[in-house]
């Protein structure tokens, strides 16, 4: 199943193609800014301007969409593999924008505030860590994002007294929620 970028008021658009919705926006820009229409054809300069605007509009939408997905990344990881289309959309947008640093800062902050504190069960931390490994592999096959963003999880798990016990229980199938650990190995 292909991932879908869905801007407001438009149908689903596969991320591999900018989609008709961007063309509608560019068409609107042509009519508004260049006064392009059937009675008045666009000049070559206007066509060049419109091509530049098309690039700006695409980049703008990719940056906005990536920013929205980056803010939701903790939940997207938690819901993986059901959220795989969102990961694929984000990957597509990150390939066209320079937002990896924003992603790293945001994800590390979300992990530290929402996951890495005494109120969260070790089993839940391990389960989310497994989901993060799976999701971030899809997002970044080089696994650089995984190494950097998940370093606080690895460091925090070393401080928990029951980490080894939960991992062993997960491997033997004695613990709820960490069954993925046995499957992965």
From TrEMBL:
A Pfam family assignment: TPR_ANAPC2
Gene Ontology cellular component annotations, sorted alphabetically: anaphase-promoting complex
One example of a Gene Ontology biological process annotation: protein K11-linked ubiquitination
Signal peptide, first to last residue: none
Anaphase-promoting complex subunit 2 TPR repeats domain segment(s): 51-160
Protein name from the UniProt record: Anaphase promoting complex subunit 2
Native source species: Ictidomys tridecemlineatus
